[in-house]
Fold these 2 entries.
Entry 1:
Amino acid sequence: MDPEFFEAAAMPLFDQLYNFAHWLTGNRSDAEDLVQETYAKALKGFRSFQEGTNLRAWMYRILRNSFLTSRTGLGAHNVSPLDDEMDITALAAHSLTPEFLVLQQEGKQTVRDALACLPLNYREVILLCEIEEMQYKEIAEVLGVPIGTVMSRLARARKMLRELLTAKPTEKVSKWTVIKTPSH
């Protein structure tokens, strides 16, 4: 395949891949390295890509496999916050009270903390579905699992998140500790 075709097809995915890599690694520098490695591997192996198949899923799968085989992959449990995507200027000036801003940040951090506590196989399915807005079929391609597995992992991940987010502060510590324990 033509390198120019690869560039035209794969480069629009850069921001999405970086975002997913950042969620997985929890570190900007590691995410940049992971995306760079993903593009290098994809370009090197582009002749094995079957035209007419899902390039996006293929690229995500390379990124995921590179992450899992990296020195931090399977041990990564933390998620660092990304830059705030909300355009604060779009809000009315009167709604930007200190209390509003504190509650907003606290809520985001609570969700990030809960996501960070999920085992990797549940965290990645939630991120691919909810953040990257992939369909079940595409997630199945990325993860290399049947669609039914994607659906069951997603249901379990949502249930875990719901339990974490609705738990009382004293319950959260014990629940988060239990959820952090790797499961099959």
Entry 2:
Amino acid sequence: MDLEKHIHQINNHLNRRTFLQNGLFSLGGLALSTMTAAPNLSSLLRAEETELPHFSPKAKRIIYLFQSGAPSQMELFDYKPKLKSMFGQELPSSVRQGQRVTGMTADQRSFPLAMGDFSFDQYGQSGAWLSNLLPYHREIVDDICIVKSMYTEAINHDPAITFFQTGSQQAGRPSIGSWISYGLGSENANLPSFVVLLSRSKWNGGQPLYAKLWGNGFLPSEHQGVMFRSGHDPVLYLANPPGMDRQSRRRMLDYLADLNQSQYHQTQDDDIQSRIAQYEMAYRMQVAVPETLDISDEPDYVFDMYGEDARIPGTFAYNCLLARKLAENDVRFIQLYHQGWDMHGGLPRLIKELTKDTDQASSALVKDLKQRGLLDDTLIVWGGEFGRGCYSQGKLTPDNYGRDHHPRCFTIWMAGAGVKKGITYGATDDFSYNITKNPVHVHDLQATILHLMGIDHLRFTKKYQGRRFRLTDVHGEVVKDILT
């Protein structure tokens, strides 16, 4: 009897799905006839539900330069001369106010203030403060918006990076790139709308990165980020195996599509349509990916701009150059991760090496997009998952110290489509410990990014397990003061 009851429930479920499908095409057919043909029912429902973009976007694409491990804001952007004048003195209790620290420094009896032998000066018409560690940033300082008042809720790396990329400290939510791919789709049918590039500093190991950071969560699987590796095969298992030519691959995919469509008509499982879409994308990528990632025709002046590392696959500079090429080919969301910024010890030496990895290439990307007319509709975001504390972790010496995690304030920068140029937003206290002006929460940044893409973060939701989820959860406001 239980089996008969279960079969009866399945039949009822399929009947309801059939009714809704027929109703959609009969009642909405006239309106849908003016739209571009959609590949499956789920995409029609999604387009009808979200009506994206909600308004005219400023940005067509995003390049996110994520500095994994958390750069120290005090050595780079947030100039705090008191840290030098008070070197070795105790962090005032009135500043810390009993706020929690990580388990790595919780047992320290002393919290001595620390700052290395780094100098700051003001540059550009904006007069923004920059460290001598960032000589190439001086060339773009009037093109970027420096936000000194970011803060987050997470105090350890994995939940903090997950929070930045998915809007939640818990794994399982869709990444920001997946949200944008799901909402806006692709402008290039031959390339993924969401691409991920990884690089690692040769000076410092860095925190591990997991596929959940570019995962699709509960969104259809074709919206997950596609990682392009350095080397001969940028995408694993994309090339045809020996003995199979392109025509044979096409025939195989056609037969497979017929089988999947037959199964879909029986079960109405939207995951099957996602699987078909991924097979077809992989087929088109076999030609498009090698052509897009080929840098052999780039002139010497481009490599001079990005630095010699741009000739070496797998480096941050190489990936920045690829990011420009992907932007030229209308990839919607381009995510770069550079590992190595986690500096609990040896910071004065390590931060010099990390800025060598990233300073020139980051600046070159802004200049390159600008000279090609792409910066006007491309948004660039640069920053890590949290900041660093102003006191020394471990033993403090005149030329060596480390810094622990600090979620209460840190610096990022943005540039490009819809972002004000040459401004510094927000401020921190004399120790870069607490925010004193214009705090910006992680969800505020995410809301602002979506806004620049023409998306109202409050209206952009996906119903899952009985609840409507959004990237910014139940929080977040657009930071309108930094927008044009």
